[in-house]
Amino acid sequence: MVIGLHLSKPRIVVMTLPNSGTSPATSATQTPPPSLQAPAQSWGDHAGCILTASPMHASKLSSPVGLPIQSCFPSTDGYRSFAFAFGFLWTLELRTHLIRVHRLYSSLTMTLKLYGNPNSVNTKCVAVILYLKKIPHELITVDIITRKDNLLPEYLGKQPFGEIPYLDDDGFVLYESKAICRYLEERYGDHGPALMPSDLKAKALFEQAVSVEWANFEAYAMVAGVEGVLKPKFFPNLPFNKALYDQAIKTLSMKLDVYETILAKQKFLAGDEMTLADLFHLPYGELLAIGGNYIMTTKGPNVKRWWTAISSLPSWQAVKDKVPAGVVDF
Amino acid sequence: MVLKLYGNPQATCTKRVAVVLYEKKIPFELVVIDLSKGEHKAPAFLEKQPFGQVPYIEDDGFTLFESRAISRYLDAKYPNKGPKLTPDSDLKAKALFEQGVSIEQSNFDPFASKAIMEAIFKPMFGQTKNDAVYDEAIKTLSAKLDAYEKILAKQKYLGGDGVTLADLFHLPYGSLLATAGSDLMTSKGPNVTRWWKDISSRESWAAIAKGIPAGVNKFD
Question: What range(s) does the GST N-terminal domain occupy (chain B) (predicted)?
Fold first, then answer.
């Protein structure tokens, strides 16, 4: 039996030698009896065959290949059953061990590491791009609530503001979620849909949309999201500032009136193609509904159409509640 | 046809675009929008800028708003005029530039603009400064500038070793902090001070800091 590890794909391959009813040593010296020439039917059989030679022929082997256990069994059948069971369990055990080794190997060899948190809005911002473009990566969890890993000196050495997430791409460190998204789009341009135009005017309108998201959406959605969802969830002893929440929602509503007119003329915020500018709305937009505000689907038919289109993307669904931690290979 | 900048000579975001026009010596006409008369909320204005904010540009029929988007467009359209203010070839240099731009937007602008709103703009419109809001904004900004101090110890500018839009974007609000009553930009630490003095003493900023000349701005 030969056990190989396919390194290009996360798969364990177990290959077995055919017709291993006898040890190689015997075939050169004598012809095995017909009853042992039938091919083994299962992996357990193979394992059993290699672990122990047939008790009937053990004494005839020029080199011992197995445990001298044949004397413990009253019959050949009982012995074979034991060998089968033992071999089966041994293969299962081996398989579990190999999966563990493979995971460790993947983690050691995975060059794109995102340091963030499964619950963090800005980690989700990067994650949706990783999933949309199917970029293999590892999410390493940074605990910002209890352990406060982000305030440790080694973390601040990478991200001086103590914020999450940051990216380590084979030693190249980058932070600010929107900068990371742009980098991934540039680096993996041929993976999945194009999310940034290159033509001068189309690019300018894209940058306009990105700026609109920040200045006219996130500025207010973030306040409402923090006040209405994140504070109660992670810092329940802090008071809820209703005036601040209400003002943020009121201003956001006025801004979305403008979105309604823009999206009447074009499918997405930068034009008729979906871009990063649209996707950047997802994390805080989602928080609004969690906080009990359904403005994204009640403002008007155009905002609703656009919001439904981006929020129903499978890559957003995969990360919106909790970004899967660990190694992710597509 | 000369590029038209619709904005206000004293408005922060109009100045953000103007400093780039001056850096690259791109001729333009400042069409003055009187904010006190509400001209930015008039239907004709809203046709071009639906959020009712200044500035926007008209470049041979192409309309664009959001000062940072306009700045990027100008640098991309005129790569060989004046300094290159955005790296465009090397993937990593580009990424670090974008990191710098994002730092300005999320770690500087929200707090600097909030402090200036309280200390300068509200009194200008007859409203009272909220000291608690001002103090909180300055306190947060100060903590953010501690991180700037570390970054600028290792590199000359915020986006790398050359000056880029990531630095220039700080000028409008950064310059008003002293007027608002905070000397953070020159007292935080040696690196922030060095960097701030460098960018705020550029000719382009000196030309418009007190107000952008209305009408046609030519460069000979």
Answer: 1-82
The answer to pTM > 0.80 is yes
The angle that helices A76-109 and A43-51 make with each other, rounded to 10 degrees, is 110
Indicate the residue type of A163: E
Burial B173-194 (b: 16+ CB within 10 A, else e): bbbbbeebebebbeebeebbbe
Place of tokens 């504070």: A231
A201 in contact with B at a CB cutoff of 8 Å?
Answer: yes
The crossing angle, in degrees rounded to 10, of helices A200-212 and B67-77 is 160
Calculate the average pLDDT of chain B: 97
Long-range contact list for A51-55, CB < 8 A, 24+ apart? A51/A83, A51/A86, A51/A87, A51/A90, A52/A79, A52/A83, A53/A22, A53/A23, A53/A26, A54/A21, A54/A22, A55/A79
Q: CA A288, CA A295: separation in Å to the nearest integer?
A: 8
Q: What are the backbone angles phi and psi of residue B116, rounded to the nearest 5°? A: -70, -35
d(Cα B191, Cα B168) in Å, to the nearest integer?
16
pLDDT of A97 strictly over 70: yes
Instruction: Write the burial class of residue A183 (CB in 10 Å: 0-12 exposed, 13-18 middle, 19+ buried).
Output: buried
Six-digit token string for A92: 């299962």
Q: Is the pLDDT of residue B202 over 80?
A: yes
Q: Which two tokens stand for residue A137?
A: 């990566």
Query: Amino acid identity of A102?
Result: H
Chain A stretch 167-186, residues whose beta carbon is closer than 8 A to a beta carbon of chain B: 172, 174-179, 182-183, 186
Distances (CA, A) of B26 to A237, A279, B2: 54, 34, 9
Beta-bridge partner residues of B28: B3, B217
Closest residue on chain A to B143 (Cα): A161
Task: At A234, list the tokens.
Answer: 């992670």
Rounded to a whole number, what is the distance in Å from the CA of A212 to chain B's nearest CA?
7
Domains of chain A: 2-107 (no CATH), 116-193+324-328 (3.40.30.10), 200-317 (1.20.1050.10)
Chain A residue with the nearest C-alpha to that of B68: A211
Interface test with A, best of B98, B101, B104 (most A CBs within 10 A): B98
Cα separation values, A71 from A23, A54, A74, A201, Å: 19, 12, 8, 85
Pairing relationship of beta strands B28-32 and B56-59 according to DSSP bridges: unpaired
DSSP codes of every residue in A106-130: HHHH--EEEEE-TT-HHHHHHHHHH
What average pLDDT score do residues A24-39 get? 41
pLDDT digits (tens, 9 = 90+) for A126-180: 999 999 999 999 999 999 989 999 999 999 999 999 999 999 999 999 999 999 9
User: Between residues 39 and 68 of chain B, which touch chain A (CB distance below 8 Å)?
Assistant: 50-51, 62, 64-68
Q: Do A208 and B66 touch (CB under 8 A)?
A: yes
Q: State how far the Cα of B52 lies from the Cα of B159, in Å rounded to an integer.
A: 31
Q: How far is Cα B20 from Cα A140, in angstroms, rounded to an integer?
A: 40
